[in-house]
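Reopening this one. Same input as before:
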Amino acid sequence: MTQENMPKATSFEKTKLPNIKNIIVVASGKGGVGKSTIAAGLALSLALEGFSVGLMDADLYGPSIPTLFNLKNERPSAGEQDGKTQIEPFIRFGIKVISIGFFIDPAQAVLWRGPMASNALKQLINETNWGNLDYLIIDTPPGTGDIHLTLLQQYEISGSVIVTTPQLIALDDVQKAIAMFRNEHVGVPILGIVENMSWFTPSKHPGEKYFLFGQGGGKKLSETFGIPLIAQIPVNENICQSCDEGKLNILVRDDEVKTAFSSLLDGILADQKKEGAQI
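Same output, byte for byte:
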């Protein structure tokens, strides 16, 4: 296709959700980097600071939020508000939680084409009874597909967080996500990079670090694109168990993890204050 035949860019009119001050998208071009854990940990950190927080799991093809919050096989209720049917989110650890996983059979593959996936996403955002929120954290699928385009083209997004792992091999995929947010027709600020699984520290030997997944990925991304590396999240066996059992509150009891999420929170809040966002 020649330059002359390329489709012209479209200008999109974005929707501002009236009762939500800030929407933060958590993304990565690559799967398996612990994006859902970062989104949930960020939501929990904000809630512990006294902010009103919602968390939406927009990963249609592999929703993890129900597991992280011990809500597998749960179904939310619906009620009438102002003549419209509203989905009532679950409340866990002070966070209003909704997931596409509440509406699909986890044992079945989701065979949805782009328009159906986009419509499901918009319904989830628009018809959930969020109330008044300081922050809505949205956990997105891997890649740069229809879900991301719907979010970024149709809603006013305050900022994004890019999640990676230390392996240098992960960087090619993550760079695509960075390019998506920086596209001139998207224009969503990237608040920072989070490197997950930075090292393994056995819970009984807190002074030891094992770099099982390599080193330097987050730092290299930060230097290459001029985006701050705002947190490095370690992992240990207790963290993995607490996530699998839906005991998210235990996650931030680990000193190293608590420090890492505090750094992530500080990075988000500092950037938003600098940009003059509502907090």
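So the earlier flakiness isn't reproducible anymore. For the record, Confidence is low (pLDDT under 50) at residues 1-10.
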